[in-house]
Write a structure and sequence with these properties.
Layout (H helix, E strand, L loop, with lengths): L2 E5 L5 H10 L5 E3 L11 E5 L14 E4 L5 H4 L9 E3 L4 H20 L1 H9 L15 E5 L3 H12 L3 E6 L9 E4 L4 H6 L3 E4 L13 H4 L6 E5 L8 H9 L3 E6 L19 E3 L9 H16 L15
Parallel strand pairs: 1-2, 1-3, 3-4, 4-5, 6-7, 6-9, 7-8, 9-10, 10-11, 11-12
Helix pairs in contact: 1-9, 3-5
The structure holds NADPH dihydro-nicotinamide-adenine-dinucleotide phosphate and oxalic acid.
The site of NADPH dihydro-nicotinamide-adenine-dinucleotide phosphate has 32 residues, from α5 and β7.
Length: 309
Amino acid sequence: MPIVIVSDIKNLEPWIKALKKADPAIDVITHNEVKDKSAIEFALAWNYPHGIFSEYPRLKAISSMGAGVDHIINDKFLPEHIRIVRITDPLLSNDMFEYTLAVIMNRLRLLTYFQENQRLRIWKKRMYMRISGVRIGLMGAGTIGSHILSKLQNSGFKVSGWARTRGNKVPYKKYYGSGQMEKFLNNTDILICLLPLTAETYGILNKSTMKMLPEKSWIINMGRGGHIVDEELIEMLDSGHLDGASLDVFREEPLPVDHPFWSHPKIFITPHIASLPDPGSVAPQIIENYHRTIENRPLLNTVDRQRGY
Ligand code: NDP
Ligand code: OXD
């Protein structure tokens, strides 16, 4: 029984190769190659055309090709009984940490500022910030966020996390729930957003919550573009309340060429590359979930469709 891949990723060859290497007995095909849709029980998906899975009468489970599942959850045509699983991968979590560290160190050591001065041949000293002097706050202290917080803490940063629930004991300061959000934001100089996009988190970074951050704070968004109210971010940057923003994710991707973020002097843009899943690293868990699906066993890394993550 084949695995079908339905995705907007242009080159699927590395995925097909990695899945076949993990289990040579399984056929891996793309949506256009499927001859008999009733033979498919397990799919792998990323940014697919919504409604497409109604064509697969025996489909039981869909695995996201990444950690996020909003692109699947938002498919209102997806039958209720189809289970959704996602990727959790230490390599991916660590890639996210390395991106975060790079962006934070750019901010602390003013690298973009000095690069611009180099372009203009300006020799001008400016005082930098120290790791020990900034408080990092991360919204969405889950699988990836906890890894980032622990590594940043080990590097000497003062860190705190915010989640929906109290959860298990963690080695860093943790806030949770809407009741503790303001206190969390009041104590954050660099805010990292790594929330899943759900009905509750949509637009969570707006004028009123950004005002809870101290003057001259900085935002790093690697969650989803829908977390930020774009115009209100620009307003907070222009008013000087926020000193800058590093954005890796956007409401519309690719970011439209006429979007005001592109030319804003306080915005640093990357094209959704905080991490790119490594097919070789994640193929074994996908194959495991394929077998569990076929055998009607409980799946790994399941998503609660009601909760949205
Ligand atoms: P997890 O599900 O492991 O963690 C999600 C965290 O968010 C949990 O701590 C959860 O709280 C918290 N959360 C959810 N809803 C709320 C809420 N309403 N209020 C407060 N906290 C909330 O996900 P991952 O760590 O694996 O991934 C998180 C997201 O990161 C993905 O959904 C994706 O959007 C983004 N991502 C972006 C990438 C990029 O390249 N830019 C790459 C990978 C992921 P609790 O612990 O209480 O459940
Ligand atoms: C993911 C992502 O969710 O790349 O994995 O954003």
